[in-house]
Specification:
alpha/beta
Length: 128
């Protein structure tokens, strides 16, 4: 089985972990200990949160300034259009930024948001 690991720099591990837990991501770590925290998105996908300084040390370059540019948009599929809207609404309640109403393109329905550190995400549902 192939595993996917999404690695992101964050300003504060505790608040970032709280944000993602509000979206239903889980972790075996009850408390933040160190510079990295792993969260489970699904059986095959993990979100690795790193303090910005540790991320930059690991990559050897400065992390992208999410206020002025985007390096990636992370998209996650869900089971229904309703779940797309519920999750983006939860992200906004948890302090993220909704990027507006959902859009439909053929069988795909998608809606985006930015997390507490400005990383852009979208939840999408593919009908059929």
């Amino acid at each position: 089985m192939t595993m996917t690991f999404i690695n992101l720099p964050v300003r504060d591990l505790t608040t970032a972990a709280e944000f993602y837990r509000a979206l239903g991501f889980t972790s075996d770590q009850a408390d933040v200990d160190g510079d990295t925290l792993a969260l489970t998105i699904s059986d095959s996908t993990r979100l690795m949160l790193h303090l910005r300084s540790g991320f930059e040390e690991y990559t050897g370059v400065a992390a992208t300034d999410t206020q002025t540019s985007r390096e990636v948009i992370i998209g996650l599929s869900v089971q229904s259009r309703e779940q797309v809207d519920e999750l983006v609404d939860q992200a906004a309640v948890a302090g993220g930024e909704s990027l507006g109403p959902g859009t439909a393109n053929g069988p795909m329905y998608m809606r985006g948001f930015r997390d507490l550190d400005g990383h852009q995400w979208s939840f999408l549902h593919l009908a059929g």
